[in-house]
Specification:
Distance between the termini: 108 Å
Number of helices: 8
Strand content: 15-25%
Number of strands: 12
Radius of gyration: 48 Å
Helix content: 40-55%
Low-confidence stretches: 1-28, 378-382
Order of helices and strands: HHEEEHEEEEEEEEEHHHHH
Structural class: alpha+beta
Largest sheet: 8 strands, mixed
Length: about 450
C-alpha cells in the first residue's frame, strides 16, 4: 500500500515537470527589465569609466553631427545676433557599451542615463546665451545600439552672434555662420564630421518657410570642407554651417519708406500756398522737417553705430534735403517779394520827389517873369527859362522812363514764378533720385 502511494506521487511529479518545465527556471515577469537593459546597467556599474573617451590611446573618436532647426525666434540688428531653437544630435561609437540581444537592437535611456556615460565636449564659439529645455522633463534622448553606437539628441535654444554688413539695410541679405568645435580633445582624440548625405540623419535640416519678424532663412547648407581651429592649446576639430537671412523689405516699406515719401510730398503743398501767408508755409515745412528728424532718430535707435552709410540713411537724408529745399524755396520767394515791394516803393518816392521839384521850379519861374519889366532882361531871362525848362522836362522824362523800366522788370519777374517752376522741378528731381536709388540697392542686393 505504501509502495503504491509512493509510485503514484512520483508519476505525478514527473508529469508536472514535463508540462510546466523546471521550477527553478526564471519566470517571464513583465516588470522585470529586459536582458539588454540589465547588461548595459551592469557594464556602467562595473567597468565603465566616463572620464575616459572611447578607444583611449587608440584612433580618434569620430563624432557625426546633425542639426535640426525648427524655430527662428528673432534677430537683433543692434546686438548683431539671432536666436534659434534646434535639435542637436551627435553620434559616436563606444565599444565598451556593446551588448547582445536577439530581441532588442537598442536601449533608450532618459536624461539620467546621460550622466552615466562619456559625452563629446562640444561648444558653439559664437554663442552669447543658451539654455536646454526641461519642460515637462529634460528634452534629452540617449540611445545605445548593440554595436556600441550611441545617439545623443537634445533640444536647445541659442543666441548666436553674427557679423552683419548693413550697407544695404534694409534691403540686405545677411550671411551668418554657425560653428561647432571640440573644447577638450584635440584632433588626435576627436574628429567632428557632418552626417553624410546618404545617412538617416540630415546634416542640416531647417523647417520649411522658417522666418522671423524681419528675416527669411534660405539656401542654408553645411560646409563639408575639413575645419581645424588652431589655438595655443592645440588643434581642435570644428564644423561650420552657413545661413542666408533675407530681410523682409515689405515691413520697412510700410514703416519707413512710405511715410517719408508722404512727408516729402506734403512739403510740396507749400508751393500752392499764397506767398503772403508766411505762417502757414513756414509751419508746414517745419512740421515736415521735425517729423522726418523724429523718424530718423527712431530708425537709428534700432541699429548699431557703424562707420559706413546705410541704404536707409541715404534715403532719409535725401528726403530731409528735399523738405529743407522746400523751406529754402519759400525763403527765396519771400525775399523776391520783399525786393519787389522795396523797388516799387523807391520808384514811387523818386517820381514824387521829381514832380515836387518841377512844380517848385515852375512857380519860381512865373514870379520872376512877372517882376521883370525890361524887355532885354525879359528876353534873356526867357531864354534861360526856356533852356532850364527843357532840361527839367528831359529829366522828368528820364525819371518816368526809369520808373517804367523798373515797373516792367517787376512785372516780368514775379515771386509767384518761383513757386510755379518749383511745382514741376521738385517732383522731377525726386523721381530722378528714385530712378537711381532703387536699381542701385536692389541690384547690389541680388
Amino acid at each position: 500500500m505504501t509502495n503504491c502511494a509512493t509510485l503514484v506521487l512520483l508519476l505525478h511529479i514527473m508529469g508536472y515537470t514535463a508540462i510546466y518545465g523546471d521550477y527553478d527556471e526564471p519566470s517571464s515577469d513583465p516588470l522585470e527589465p529586459p536582458p539588454s537593459v540589465t547588461m548595459v546597467s551592469q557594464m556602467l556599474r562595473d567597468k565603465y569609466d566616463k572620464k575616459l573617451r572611447p578607444g583611449f590611446h587608440g584612433p580618434p573618436v569620430l563624432v557625426t553631427t546633425s542639426i535640426n532647426i525648427n524655430h527662428f525666434h528673432a534677430s537683433s540688428d543692434t546686438n548683431m545676433d539671432y536666436t534659434v531653437t534646434m535639435f542637436f544630435r551627435t553620434r559616436w561609437k563606444d565599444e565598451r557599451l556593446m551588448f547582445t540581444d536577439d530581441k532588442n537592437h537598442s536601449v533608450t535611456l532618459g536624461a539620467d542615463g546621460v550622466q552615466e556615460i562619456w559625452l563629446p565636449p562640444l561648444f558653439f564659439p559664437d554663442e552669447k546665451t543658451g539654455h536646454f529645455h526641461d519642460i515637462t522633463t529634460a528634452n534629452t534622448l540617449l540611445r545605445i545600439y548593440t554595436d556600441g553606437t550611441i545617439l545623443h539628441s537634445t533640444r536647445v535654444t541659442l543666441t548666436i552672434g553674427c557679423k552683419m554688413q548693413l550697407e544695404r539695410y534694409p534691403m540686405d541679405v545677411q550671411r551668418c555662420k554657425l560653428e561647432l568645435e571640440s573644447f577638450t580633445y584635440e584632433t588626435d582624440d576627436l574628429i567632428l564630421q557632418w552626417a553624410p548625405e546618404d545617412d538617416d540623419m540630415l546634416a542640416l535640416e531647417i523647417e520649411e518657410s522658417l522666418k522671423s519678424s524681419q528675416f527669411e532663412v534660405f539656401n542654408s547648407k553645411p560646409v563639408r570642407k575639413p575645419c581645424i581651429k588652431v589655438y595655443s592649446t592645440g588643434n581642435f576639430s570644428c564644423l561650420q554651417a552657413d545661413f542666408n537671412l533675407a530681410r523682409v523689405k515689405e515691413l520697412f516699406i510700410m514703416s519707413s519708406y512710405l511715410p517719408s515719401v508722404l512727408i516729402v510730398v506734403l512739403s510740396w503743398f507749400s508751393f500752392w500756398i499764397n506767398p503772403n501767408s508766411e505762417p502757414a508755409r513756414v509751419a508746414l515745412c517745419m512740421t515736415a522737417i521735425l517729423t522726418l528728424c523724429t523718424q530718423i532718430n527712431g530708425i537709428q535707435a534700432t541699429l548699431p553705430k557703424v562707420q559706413h552709410l546705410k541704404a536707409i540713411d541715404v534715403w532719409m537724408s535725401a528726403c530731409l534735403i528735399f523738405v529743407f529745399a522746400a523751406l529754402v524755396e519759400f525763403a527765396a520767394v519771400n525775399y523776391k517779394s520783399l525786393c519787389k515791394k522795396a523797388a516799387a516803393t523807391k520808384a514811387q518816392a523818386d517820381e514824387k520827389n521829381a514832380l515836387l521839384e518841377m512844380k517848385e521850379f515852375d512857380e519860381k519861374h512865373d514870379l520872376e517873369a512877372k517882376s521883370n519889366t525890361n524887355n532885354t532882361e525879359v528876353e534873356s531871362k526867357a531864354e534861360v527859362v526856356i533852356e532850364t525848362g527843357s532840361k527839367w522836362k528831359n529829366a522828368r522824362k528820364s525819371i518816368l522812363g526809369i520808373n517804367m523800366h523798373v515797373q516792367h522788370y517787376l512785372d516780368k519777374s514775379k515771386p509767384e514764378d518761383i513757386d510755379y517752376f518749383s511745382r514741376f522741378l521738385f517732383p522731377i528731381a525726386f523721381l530722378i533720385f528714385n530712378f537711381f536709388y532703387w536699381p542701385t540697392y536692389l541690384q547690389w542686393m541680388s
